[in-house]
Write a structure and sequence with these properties.
The structure holds 2 protein chains of 2 kinds.
Chain A (H helix, E strand, L loop, with lengths): L1 E12 L8 H13 L3 E2 L3 E12 L3 E2 L6 E12 L6 E10 L2 E6 L2 E6 L7 E4 L5 E4 L5 E3 L3 E11 L4 E6 L6 E2 L8
Chain B lengths: L6 H6 L4 H7 L5 H9 L5 H13 L2 H4 L7 H27 L3 H6 L10 H20 L4 H22 L5 H6 L8 E6 L5 H14 L5 E5 L7 E6 L2 H8 L12 E3 L1 H8 L13 E4 L8 E8 L4 E6 L5 H8 L18 H6 L5 E4 L6 E5 L2 E4 L2 E7 L3 E2 L7 H7 L10 H9 L11 E4 L8 E8 L2 E6 L8 E4 L3 E3 L6 E4 L8 E8 L2 E6 L5 E5 L3 E3 L9 E2 L2 E2 L3 E3 L5 E8 L2 E6 L7 E5 L5 E2 L5 E3 L5 E3 L3 E4 L8 E8 L2 E5 L9 E5 L3 E3 L7 H24 L9 H8 L17 E3 L9 E8 L2 E6 L5 E5 L6 H25 L3 H20 L1 H6 L4 H6 L21 H4 L8 H9 L4 H8 L6 H11 L4 H13 L13 E6 L3 E6 L10
The chains are: A mainly beta, B alpha+beta.
């Protein structure tokens, strides 16, 4: 799920940036530092929408670096148990397949794939339904439900299922549902 | 006690109690002897008895005749004692297995007699001695005897009721006043024989002062002798060949005396369908399922997966000689068809008792492929059986649901650890009316668990026996395995199949099947066990002299190691002791384009099986890279590849660089020496050789801050974890030196003594860098100056330029590589401008001007008025060898900040001795390119050769 929240961060800025463009530097550094990171609490920071407030800088003794408390608005993405996501399959193996929804990696175990879908090894490994109408392979788009998340300090890993109504391959509109 | 029992008596006493009693009714010693015989602890009895014996020794001499009044008196005394004896013995009996009694008098009792019979005998025996004494004609005696008997009978009931309290039992334990127990060493396997010998000896020589002899079945090499003194023991042992005379008898501490003769009760409650393991023979360690239990015969019928080599079996049946083989055939289901193919006669017979049909081959019974066999209870172990999944799966008939097999599950449950259920655990009822009811644990009291059912309409809490409950998990739960083979694994529940969970391991991303019972919910975000001994997951380890690998998985007590064999992943499972050491050296390797690859660099595999994979290098050893690709799932994402078949992402693809580098050195030396010559006459006073050589390039010799310190010098690290690395000294604190590594772009702290000889190593290297970085792009701009330099260049510089310089760009200009090719074109020089961006390593050139004494002025000059170039030439001239730098200098002048210029204006005057670099790393400078375009840049490093 995406959230638009305000976060705060202390930015250290090198004295070389002090000057008329200090603010710009700060923002660009913030974007560089923060976007794409993951925190266990908030999930992935997808984008910074704006900077609300930049506090007074504090010079660090000894280094000349200055620390600015920066409040910024950002969009974060955090997967939740039970959430339905659309993801792109990145890899298929006999244990299941991995899919990515943005930065989140989701594993769908073969136990959580419909029973009639069987693993087909070969050049392009895939899960194919018995009648061949549905095929999940690399680059397929799937709709899945997250059944569990493991949140590390720097990574969120999810386990998903496509064994439910309206879940599964959505790449081909005809085959979906 | 042996002394009081006759050998002949003992032999048949089991079978013919009554008869014996008739015959030897008068033998008073029987009562005591018998009573004791089957008991474990004799000290009390013997004590009493021995007192008797000691007091009237003559009794024993003519014992057969001496059954008169005096004897009777003693008999009564003994009987009184016997109450005590029996009482005590009974108590003991409850604890002891009846086998014990046979140990006491080895060889006299048919050992095959199972406990049941012995127990029975005990009961009979207890009353018999007394009834026999009733045959005595003395009325008083009878009176007493009857009274005693009544009391005694009560006692016997009494102990069956098991009302003996702990305190009473304790009162019976041996004290200091009792004879001691001595442990005597004897020949292995002759324990019983020795005991019998001693007994016989005692009969022959009643003056022996030992009280009893005990040989324990489970204790080899030793027998116990009960006696007051050690001397008595020695006396008794004298002349017995089975007793090792040289060893001293060991005293058993009083506290341990009772333990010697008591055996922990093994409550063998075998029931059908429980799991057991074989203890002996070919099937040792194999899992088996109990089919039938014969408690009386102490036998168990089990079914197990046969380990039968049909070919061997066929030969055997044919009567051929079968060589004894040492190997044990693997377990495999028996197939009637296969057997018939080998002409093994398979009969189908019906078991008379059970009515089941068996396939019979010789004496072997098979059913559904399983071998049915009967074992003695002793040869199977029933405790702590934890069948693994694989084993259970094998036993599962297709279509059988593992979970339906409640009995087998219950076996699993008996092995639960204490505190299995915790408050808050989700549980499911597996037995009884409320089967499949889910709830959460509220309270645990011993084996009773109070749960709060999830269903409405039920009481708030329900109490269940622990064995009726099983843990329950939902898919998606993050759990940790706490027992079983997979102990320690952490993962997410992917699927729940009854009581079996399928877990996706966090570490290996593989599926694990475990029992729900072996799992607890885990909030840990770690990946479970990541360390055994000194080795951690993902460590590079040396297995033996020729092989090494990376630990990609930890199993209980073993590591799975991906060996450092490129192109074909080779996995080995190694034990902790098989690992020689951890390889913790930071090395680097050259990729196929001769870029230096070090750990954490991102590389792509260009050829081989793993072609196309990319990721950061985790370890490097002997030119082999271990790359971690998070999209690669096998082997925890690790790939092993030759450095030569990979290329650094973002690295140069130029081929020539490395070679050039190699060649560079000699040139440099030549150059260096030349430089020295040139310099010394110049402004530079002679210094250390490195100084000179450095000075040659723009008086850099003033070396950082001018002192003979290492600061700002490029050095090579000679030893320690960063051995082989080159870098620039940033700071010097005592014995520690902070070095900015060239290849890693980070600052590390190393010991001063780890640093290589700066003169020899550093300088050429440094020069290489600089000359490369600086000069190349400069080329075009140089042209105007050419006239001045040309003469110089030819002799000294030219070779350098062509050879050394070229390599540089390839590295320094890596990101710009396209420009490199153009650099000879006049206009392309500034095309390289991206290099100015602060992030790139390029900034170096800026610093160059700093030390530059003579031609630093050039720089300044150029900043202020390009025209000054010409005037300043003369200054440059003394430094003739520098033509290159000169040239370099010219253009660089422009980017320089005016401020610098100002400072440096002074430097030229001072000449080579410049007060050190004015430009400091990390200082922001304005780079003006071509005059009108100004951009910011940060000085990354001060190169002492030249300026841009």
């Amino acid at each position: 799920m995406f959230f638009h929240i305000v976060l705060e961060r202390n930015m250290q800025l090198h004295p070389r940036h002090f000057g008329p463009h200090l603010r710009d530097k700060l923002v660009s550094k913030l974007i560089k530092d923060v976007e794409g990171t993951c925190s266990g609490r908030h999930g992935f920071v997808v984008a910074i929408m704006g900077v609300e407030d930049i506090g007074k800088g504090l010079i660090r003794e000894g280094t000349g670096y200055v620390t600015f408390p920066v409040k910024y608005q950002c969009v974060v993405f955090r997967p939740f148990k039970g959430e339905i996501l659309e993801a792109v399959v990145t890899m298929v193996n006999k244990m299941g397949f991995f899919a990515e929804a943005g930065l989140v990696q989701i594993f769908v175990s073969n136990h959580l794939i419909l029973d009639d879908m069987k693993f087909q090894s070969g050049d392009v490994p895939s899960y194919t339904s018995s009648d061949g109408s549905v095929k999940i392979q690399k680059e397929s788009e799937v709709r899945l439900k997250i059944i569990g998340t493991r949140v590390d300090a720097t990574e969120i890993f999810c386990v998903g299922t496509i064994k439910d109504d309206f879940l599964g391959d959505i790449s081909d509109p005809g085959a979906a549902v | 006690m042996p002394r009081r029992s006759r050998g002949e008596e003992e032999v048949d006493d089991m079978e013919e109690e009554e008869e014996e009693e008739e015959e030897r009714g008068g033998k008073r010693s029987r009562a005591g002897g018998r009573g004791k015989r089957s008991r474990g602890v004799e000290s009390f009895i013997d004590d009493a008895a021995s007192e008797d014996e000691d007091s009237d020794e003559d009794d024993d001499d003519d014992d057969d005749d001496d059954y008169g009044g005096g004897g009777r008196g003693r008999a009564s005394k003994r009987r009184r004692l016997s109450i005590l004896i029996d009482d005590m013995a009974q108590v003991d009996d409850d604890d002891d297995i009846d086998d014990d009694s046979s140990d006491v008098e080895p060889g006299f009792i048919d050992d095959t007699d199972a406990g049941v019979e012995i127990r029975h005998n005990d009961v009979v025996r207890r009353s018999i001695p007394h009834s026999s004494s009733m045959l005595e004609d003395d009325e008083d005696m009878q009176e007493i005897v009857r009274r005693l008997q009544n009391r005694y009978k009560e006692a016997s009931h009494f102990d069956y009721d098991e009302e003996v309290t702990e305190v009473e039992q304790q009162a019976l334990l041996p004290s200091v006043k009792d004879p001691k127990l001595w442990m005597v060493k004897c020949a292995i396997g002759h324990e019983r024989e020795t005991a019998v010998c001693l007994m016989q000896k005692f009969i022959d020589r009643p003056d022996l002062q030992i009280k009893s002899v005990v040989a324990l079945e489970h204790l080899k090499n030793f027998i116990y002798i009960e006696a007051e003194k050690e001397a008595h023991v020695k006396e008794a042992c004298k002349g017995l060949r089975n007793i090792i005379a040289s060893t001293k008898p060991t005293l058993v501490p009083i506290r341990e005396m009772a333990d010697v003769l008591s055996i922990e009760s093994k409550s063998v409650d075998l029931s059908r369908d429980s799991w057991v393991r074989m203890k002996l023979g070919m099937y040792k360690g194999d899992l088996a399922k109990v089919v039938d239990v014969d408690n009386v015969g102490q036998k168990v019928s089990v079914k197990l997966i046969p380990r039968i080599d049909l070919q061997v079996l066929a030969n055997k049946l044919d009567g051929q000689e079968v060589p004894k083989k040492s190997f044990i055939p693997p377990p495999r289901f028996f197939s009637v068809d296969e057997a018939r193919e080998l002409h093994i006669r398979v009969d189908r017979r019906r078991n008379r008792d059970s009515g089941e049909y068996f396939d019979v081959v010789g004496s072997l019974l098979f059913k559904d492929g399983f071998l049915h066999k009967t074992f003695s209870i002793k040869s199977i172990s029933t405790q702590n059986i934890k069948p693994t999944f694989d084993e259970l799966e094998k036993f599962k008939k297709p279509g059988d649901d593992l979970n339906e097999d409640v009995a087998s599950l219950s076996t699993l449950f008996t092995n639960r650890k204490k505190g299995h259920f915790m408050k808050g655990d989700a549980v499911i009822v597996i037995k009884g009316d409320l089967k499949n009811l889910k709830g959460s644990v509220e309270k645990v009291e011993d084996s009773t668990v109070h749960i709060q059912p999830k269903l409405a309409g039920l009481p708030r809490t329900l109490a269940f026996s622990e064995t009726n409950l099983c843990k329950y998990f939902n898919p998606g739960d993050h759990v940790k395995v706490i027992s079983g083979v997979q102990e320690g694994a952490i993962g997410m529940v992917v699927k729940v199949e009854g009581h079996v969970l399928i877990i996706l391991s966090d570490t290996t991303k593989e599926h694990i099947r475990v029992f729900a019972d072996h799992v607890v919910e885990s909030s840990e975000v770690t990946t479970g066990v990541t360390r055994i001994g000194d080795y951690e997951l993902h460590d590079l380890v040396l297995l033996n002299n020729s092989s090494f690998g990376i630990i990609i998985r930890l199993e209980s007590e073993a590591f799975q190691v991906l060996k450092g064999v490129p192109d074909k992943p080779e996995l080995v499972l190694v034990k902790l002791r098989e690992i020689k050491c951890k390889i913790d050296r930071r090395t680097s390797a050259k990729d196929r384009y001769n870029n230096i690859v070090s750990t954490k660099d991102v590389v792509r595999v260009a050829e081989g099986a793993c072609k196309g994979k990319r990721g950061p290098v985790e370890h490097i050893h002997r030119g082999i890279l271990f790359i971690y690709d998070r999209h690669y799932l096998e082997h925890s994402g690790f790939i092993c590849a030759k450095a030569q078949s990979c290329f650094l992402v973002g690295g140069s693809t130029g081929i020539h660089r490395g070679n050039a580098m190699d060649k560079a050195d000699p040139h440099f030396h030549a150059f260096g020496s030349q430089a020295r010559i040139l310099q010394s006459p110049g402004r530079l006073p002679p210094r250390g050789p490195h100084m000179n050589s450095g000075g040659r390039f723009g008086g850099r010799g003033s070396g950082g801050r001018g002192n003979d310190t290492l600061v700002n010098r490029c050095i090579k690290i000679r030893s320690g974890p960063y051995k082989g690395y080159r870098g620039r000294v940033k700071e010097l604190t005592g014995v520690l030196v902070r070095v900015e590594l060239e290849s890693l772009m980070k600052i590390v702290t190393v010991k001063r003594e780890d640093i290589g000889d700066t003169a020899a190593v550093a300088t050429p290297f440094r020069e290489t860098c600089y000359s490369r970085g600086v000069e190349t792009p400069v080329h075009p701009s140089r042209t105007p100056l050419h006239p001045i330099q040309t003469p110089m260049r030819n002799p000294g510089a030219t070779p350098v330029r062509d050879v050394m310089r070229t390599p540089m760009p390839s590295r320094a200009w890596v990101p710009l590589s396209p420009h490199r090719d153009n650099r000879e074109d006049g206009d392309s020089t500034w095309a390289s401008s991206p290099a100015y961006q602060p992030g790139t390593p390029r900034p170096r050139p800026y610093e160059a001007p700093t030390p530059g004494s003579g031609w630093a002025s050039w720089g300044d000059a150029s900043v202020n008025t390009p025209s000054t170039n010409v005037p300043s030439t003369p200054i440059g001239q003394p430094m003739t060898p520098d033509p290159a730098s000169y040239l370099a200098g010219t253009p660089s002048g422009q980017p320089m900040t005016p401020g610098y210029g100002g400072m440096e204006l002074m430097s030229p005057v001072i000449g080579g001795e410049a007060e050190g670099s004015w430009l400091l790393p990390d200082v922001l400078v304005n780079v003006s390119r071509g005059g009108d375009e100004v951009s910011n840049a940060v000085v990354k490093e001060v190169l002492l050769i030249t300026s841009w």
